[in-house]
Amino acid sequence: MCLLAVAGVLAVASEREAGQRFPAGFRFGAATSAYQIEGGWNVSDKGESIWDRMVHSRPDYIYDRSNGDVACDSYHLWEEDLRMVQEMGLDFYRFSISWPRLLPYGFSNQISQDGRRYYSAVIDGLRARGVAPVVTLYHWDLPQRLQDLGGWTNPLIVEWFAEYARTAFALFADRVGTWITINEPGSVCDGGYRGLLAPGLVDHEVGALLCTKHVLLAHARAYRVYQEEFKPKYGGELSIAHQESWFEPKTDQDLEITLLTREYLFGRYTHPIFSAGGGWPPALERYMADKSKREGYPRSRLPAFTPDEIQLLKGSFDFYGLNHYTSRVVRAAAAGERPAYMSRGAEVGAVLEARPHWETAASSWLKVNPEGVRNLLKLIKQQYGDVKILITENGYSDTGHQLDDSDRLNYYKDYLEQVLLAITEDAVRVVGYTAWSLLDNFEWAAGYTSRFGLYSVDFSSPRRPRAARASARYYASVARARVLHAAHTHNTTA
Ligand code: NOJ
Question: Which of 31, 82, 104, 364 is a Cys-bridge partner for 47, taking CB atoms 3.0 to 4.6 Å apart?
């Protein structure tokens, strides 16, 4: 081959290489949450959470009758976790504060000194290793005392949460630059009031919708507290992490029902915060008002916002936090077909299905469709403009201890490839990516039967030994080089 031709080939190769490079400043991280990893459920003065109550009083709720009493024992082994984050060369580590570990009875009149020391040590440990802490305030472990007072259906929780947030900011905002208020409000309300997650109540008709309003307002109040009292001093950023799947219509006739289902399951949580007009998604608001009337309710089951609340919520973000795992096709329920009462689309008469060729992870809900993440990122941009997006979770579950986890590795490779395309081809402003999870942990109602870890944990040993999987090595190589290499050709040494 002549020299010119060689140069041409090299140019094409380096273009391809350039195309596979993440933009400068793009950040890679991994995530966990307090109840799923910490254990130490009753050490010192820690208060009881709704998950402690659930696993102890209703063990059947958990598939393998396990619980998070010890979990990964990260309350004691947190330095191990930090070592793993550092070993992968990650930019940040997303973890959560357990509300009842910091405020044992939910209110800020009593701050646990042990809780405070624990989170301080984790934050300082990360910073000493050159890793930025990204802190979630609420990852589902509500103090049981507040649940006994009505939990997320009581409007007073908006101020209780703002007060908890203020306490956490006062203690840690000098060292934490990125905050997430609520992890997956959709899971908190639609999971918690559909009997799937703690508190395990079944009232998705009214309870879940009251919860939606209050969880959003709680986020917005915490956002304003940070803006007014802490941002001027520390300049950090704060948002909420939404769970969103990619939904596409099954046929052309299903477009309208798909839009309504998206609004019901996702827009209900995002529109009040990110849209220019604020408030509930108009189509959903109309639908719920009409439906509630037909059902004989004196007012809409979707509780109205006051004009002040609309303003409080609108724009209460510094970036868009996105937890994404999976996709579905949506179709309208056929005449006479009643979607299962508790199914997620039932409220709006939709049936959610997976395409047959999408593979299923150990979690039966997790169908693999990498293009879904790119489609969703484009949709967010289309709906809410050129917003800065931080992918706050993405990951894959399997069932066992195996370290050679090619399915997970390929999931990360294929999803990251689509994220990169969204950035380079569609100009979506994705600023970072978070792998769920750093290590195997308590997967809520699935117990320890679904494992999401880049590192495996041996839960049969009291020492809870951790070991890097092949996916951890792969992810480390991407995070270090900032380039997406084909999974099989890259040197995968962490
Ligand atoms: C979302 C949740 O935030 C996290 O707690 C959970 O383990 C993962 N998804 C996987 O289901």
Answer: 104
Find out whether the beta carbon of 440 lies less than 6 Å from any atom of ligand 1: no
Helices (H), 113-262: 113-128, 144-148, 157-172, 185-186, 207-225, 231-234, 255-262
Q: What integer pLDDT is reported at residue 490 of this predicted model?
A: 40
Which domains does the chain carry? 4-491 (3.20.20.80)
163 is catalytic: no
CB crowding 47-69: b at 16 or more within 10 Å, else e: bbbbbbbbbeeeeebbeeebbbe
Pairing outcome for strands 237-243 and 92-96: unpaired
| Residue 27 CB coordination number (10 Å) | 18
- Please work out, in degrees rounded to the nearest 5, the angle formed at the alpha carbon of residue 431 by the alpha carbons of 425 and 437: 110
User: Does the annotation mark 184 as catalytic?
Assistant: yes
Q: From the CB of residue 403, how many other CB atoms can be counted at a distance below 10 Å?
A: 14
Q: CA of 248: how far to CAs of 171, 372, 381, in Å?
A: 44, 9, 17
Of the candidates 184, 263, 285, 347, the residue annotated as catalytic is 184
To test ligand 1's pocket by mutation, which of 393, 408, 448 has the most ligand atoms within 8 angstroms of CB? 393
Cβ-contact 369, 246 below 8 angstroms: yes
pLDDT of residue 340: 72
For residues 357 and 230, the answer to whether their CB atoms sit within 8 Å is no
Q: How far is the CA of 437 from the centre of ligand 1 (A)?
A: 8
Catalytic residue among 38, 163, 347, 393: 393
Mean pLDDT, 10 residues at a time, the chain of 494 residues: 48 52 97 99 98 98 98 98 98 99 98 98 99 99 98 98 99 99 98 96 96 99 98 98 98 98 98 98 98 98 98 98 98 86 87 96 97 98 98 97 96 98 97 98 98 98 98 97 70 40
> In this structure, what token pair is assigned to residue 396?
């894959």
Report the residue among 187, 436, 443 best suited for mutation to probe ligand 1: largest number of ligand atoms under 8 A from its CB: 436
Tell me how far apart the alpha carbons of residues 209 and 304 are, in angstroms, rounded to a whole number.
10
In sequence order, the 6+-apart residues with CB closer than 8 A to the CB of 409 are 469, 470, 471, 474, 487
Comparing C-alpha atoms, which of 482, 437, 328, 493 is closest to residue 94? 437
Angle between helices 255-262 and 282-294 (to 10 degrees): 90
One-letter amino acid for residue 324 of the chain: H
Q: Which residues pair with 398 in a beta bridge?
A: 451
Q: With a 6 A CB cut-off, is 398 part of the ligand 1 pocket?
A: no
From residue 373, give the alpha-carbon distance in Å to each of 37, 76, 274, 338, 478. 27, 36, 19, 30, 18
Nearest CA-CA partner of 134 in 88, 166, 181: 181
Q: Which amino acid is at 393?
A: E
Please, what's the b/e burial string for 132-150 (b: 16 or more CB within 10 A of its CB; e: otherwise)?
bbbbbbbbbbbbbbbbeee
